[in-house]
Amino acid sequence: MSAEEAGALTGAQGLSDEVADAMVENALGCFSLPLGLGLHLQVNGRGYVVPMVIEEPSVIAAVCFAAKLVAGVGGFQAEADASLMIGQLQIVRYGDPRDAAQRLRAAKEELLEWARGMLPHLTARGGGMRDLEVRAGGELELPLALGTVGGPLKVHPGVRVAHHVLGNPNARELACVIAAVGLAQNLAALRALGSVGIQKGHMALHARSVAVSAGAAPEVELAALLVTEGEVRVERAQELLGEERVAADSPETHYLRGMTPKD
Hints:
The protein is mostly helical.
């Protein structure tokens, strides 16, 4: 491990306030947790040293113990399904729902080709839209077992501060707050689905993180240019950072340099 890597783990070169502010909204600071190593893990014939972030004692020790036992008989065998995500579109003013569903199913191949054409680079790399289903309904369940006494609340100063900022709730109140946060996120997603769509709002915020990932300084307004183009991708951000064809006094150049355009 290099000195730079060690510094990133110990906090000497950890996440700066500027980068944290570019990653999330209403950034207050950074929150640290212990990082330990799970040892002896064998998966599909390959050995792994596993970084594990956790505040509970004995968990890492248990993983190491069990991994060593299983390694003695050949290790774990695992397989992963293809990486697939489910996207949802809400259709409104569709008339008779059965007729609308039938028409959507009839146009399935046409819709699939249209969607793949929206992201040709993703499709070329083996991704893109795979299938279309017409369905409705859903629910949100949040089984929670929480505590506010002992454990990390006593040991971790960041946990104590977060608990204080929240108003020092008891376990039942904390469960209600967490459930309400989940419902608020779900409501925001449903509202976006019924109006401008998830992508428009999410990508505008996600663009800041993409710009930093591409190597831009947090204060550089590359994110605005990515959103304007409609291509919020790390590859495109890197291209824009390396481009020299943009005029020196154009708004785009000032975005990249974090400057204010001249009058």
